[in-house]
Design a protein that fits this description.
about 325 residues; alpha/beta; TIM Barrel; M1 Pyruvate Kinase, Domain 3; 2 domains; about 25% strand; globular; magnesium ion binding
Length: about 325
């Protein structure tokens, strides 16, 4: 199963209908930046009944409030408000939801998937003052995550519960939960959906912390699918532990490969190059020969690539590698 993510490129007329004809498995609808039904309505006329629609609930992932691209330079000093009510940038960067962990001078906040980082140089009750570590253009509402700091992630926020009201639309077949670290969280959500909307939907559990990797055995017992969310795993675990935890996931999930989905930066190079990058091809070959065939494309189908081209290339390669005999 190949999952694509909704975004500007996917919304172009005819793209979804062609992907459906080519065997698309599911469409991921991110809810962090745009209402889910608003996105679904853009592609509703092109959907096929056998294609799953999944709403991705971000949980308590901290984000900056810029609705448009925001340029920063190395050495810039920025003031970031802790007032989570400043949802849209009006001359003042802010973080939402409300920060509920301790901040120390010297802490590093990784921005987005690692495009840049901010080092804390001052902190008080109202704001954080940071220094930019690397030039970057920040996309709208990029994540801001403390590096290698243990956080008690809230799987669902009040905003997520509001977005779940779209489950009254039977087109939606599944929920993607972020920062899942134990099975109890999944059980709770299943009960809520059943009690509130009188229906059952598939649960896709994103594993993106060391604690989540450690608890894989009980998470897989309750989730319909488990997603290796490599983007936030790198940020929460750090460069040293990331490949070790990734390998641990792949080894632990071997027996459940049909329930595993691999995500994040699988084919970025398709957007700019004729040939895919060596590192991307090597990783696809590795997971393919281990039996992993479920992949989730994110920015590849939202802004970086032609969704048809990247879908065809990835579908072919993962099948080829999975069936390759020495």
């Amino acid at each position: 199963m190949i999952i694509v993510t909704a975004g500007p490129n996917l919304f172009e007329k005819g793209i979804v209908s062609e992907l459906c004809e080519k065997g698309l498995g599911a469409i991921r609808i991110p809810t962090s930046k745009q209402p889910p039904l608003e996105q679904i309505n853009k592609i509703a006329d092109e959907l096929k009944s056998n294609v799953k629609i999944l709403i991705d609930l971000p949980g308590a992932k901290y984000r900056l409030n810029n609705p448009n691209n925001y340029s920063v330079k190395k050495g810039d000093i920025l003031t970031i408000s802790k007032n989570e009510m400043i949802y849209d940038f009006v001359g003042q960067l802010a973080v939402y939801p409300k920060i509920d962990f301790d901040i120390c001078v010297g802490d590093i906040f990784v921005i987005g998937d690692g495009e840049t980082a901010f080092q804390v140089i001052e902190d008080n009750t109202e704001q954080i003052i940071v220094k930019v570590e690397k030039d970057a253009i920040l996309g709208p509402r990029r994540g801001i995550t403390p590096e290698c700091k243990t956080i008690n992630y809230q799987v669902l926020t009040e905003n997520d519960y509001q977005n779940m009201s779209c489950l009254s639309n039977k087109t939606i077949t599944g929920i993607i939960l972020s920062f899942v670290e134990n099975a109890e969280e999944i059980v709770k959500i299943k009960k809520y959906v059943k009690d509130t909307y009188n229906r059952n939907v598939e649960i896709y559990a994103k594993v993106e912390t060391k604690k989540g990797i450690n608890n894989l055995s009980n998470i897989v017992s309750e989730a319909d699918y488990v997603i290796l969310a490599r983007g936030d795993l790198l940020i929460t675990a750090g460069e040293e532990d990331f490949p070790i935890l990734q390998e641990e996931f792949l080894e632990k999930m071997k027996s459940f490969s049909k329930k595993a989905i691999i995500a994040t930066e699988l084919a970025h190079s398709v957007g700019t190059n004729y040939l895919m990058s060596r590192s991307e091809l090597t990783f696809l070959y590795l997971i393919g020969k281990m039996g992993y065939k479920n992949l989730m494309l994110a920015s590849e189908t939202t802004v970086l690539c032609d969704p048809i081209e990247v879908f065809e290339k990835i579908s072919h390669l993962i099948d080829f590698y999975a069936n390759h005999k020495k």
